[in-house]
Amino acid sequence: MVWVPLRTSRTDRRAPLRSPSARCATMSLEWLMDWSWSLDSLRDFIATGIQSFRDCDATALAAVACLLLLFLWYCYQVGREQPRASYPTVNALMQGAEANGVQNGYVYCHSPECVRCAHHDGLNQKLYHNLQEYAKRYSWSGMGRIHKGIREQGRYLNSRPSIQKPEVFFLPDLPTMPYFSRDAQKHDVELLERNFQTILCEFETLYKAFSNCSLPQGWKMNSTPSGEWFTFYLVNQGMCVPRNCRRCPRTYRLLGSLRTCIGNNVFGNACISVLSPGTVIAEHYGPTNIRIRCHLGLKTPSNCELVVGGEPQCWAEGRCLLFDDSFLHTAFHEGPPEEGPRVVFMVDLWHPNVAAAERQALDFIFAPGR
């Protein structure tokens, strides 16, 4: 048998190797053809969708419109349930606040269920109910520490050393110290100090009324072992005092610029505090450790001191002093009468280690009147 090689056609022969430039040109041509095909397909798809929409009957279109309206209504309702802004306008609050017990610039609580003023065995159950309600509306995420604090509140408060005993609510695992550095809430401290003159001028205008009567409208006299202690509240236990805010409009607007001011729960206050010469404030504890109290010195005569946890500090004009008022603390003014009163602007700020999610939950749990 003789082997004869088969003759191959021209089309079966292996094509010679092409240069890189030739291969690139071929690939580009193929890509352009694919892209043109994709555009044609996209155009056909859009045309089909438009035709399908035209073919829909009125009933289907009405159903789609109703679903869209229901979705928008749901979004609106969810938005309304979010926590309210810190400082609504004074004009909007004027009538409602006075109807709810704001008298002479001070909040008088009429509710036996108030968590800020209540001291009874059912307080923990009420706090836990408020926490559950918050978690149903929003989330349990980040609530571990608050849940732990409420569940074991009695043990925490009873076992605390006598140097620190918050009267209402103790949040566990917060750093404990009588005084805080200025950097703890640096933005708000610097903002208050930059506006020192503004706050001082509004106080001096207010204080002129003392020459006409013993206790002018808007001021509150506090109980002290000796001397006189007056306060003028802009925010008292989480509620704005509209009449007082109108008399200090620039100071009130300043509160809205503070990032960490407590304005939505019963532990938040902002006021001007005046100690006459010879005044001593009895030792006492604040209601909670979730806040730090800031004093901006407006007038600071000699021989005036604040003692927190046994550690004395002096105020300075135009400077902020930060402390934890859940520690046992007192203040006194032993300066001469001719030096006048000691005056500070006091505002409650969030403890820097309370997380944002915890702040929102605490605002809900301890909302005024809840």
Structure in words:
Belongs to the aspartyl/asparaginyl beta-hydroxylase family. Pfam families: Asp_Arg_Hydrox (PF05118). One of its GO terms (molecular function) is dioxygenase activity. This protein is an alpha+beta fold and 370 residues long. The protein is 39% helix and 18% strand. It contains eleven helices and 14 strands. The chain has helices at residues 20-55, 58-80, 90-99, 123-137, 144-151, 153-159, 186-194, 196-207, 242-247, 249-257, 356-365; strands at 102-103, 106-107, 179-180, 219-222, 229-236, 239-240, 270-275, 279-284, 291-299, 304-308, 311-313, 320-323, 329-333, 342-350. The radius of gyration is 34 Å and the shape is elongated.
Overview features:
370 residues; alpha+beta; 11 helices; elongated; transmembrane
Brief description of this entry?
This protein has 370 residues and is of the alpha+beta class.
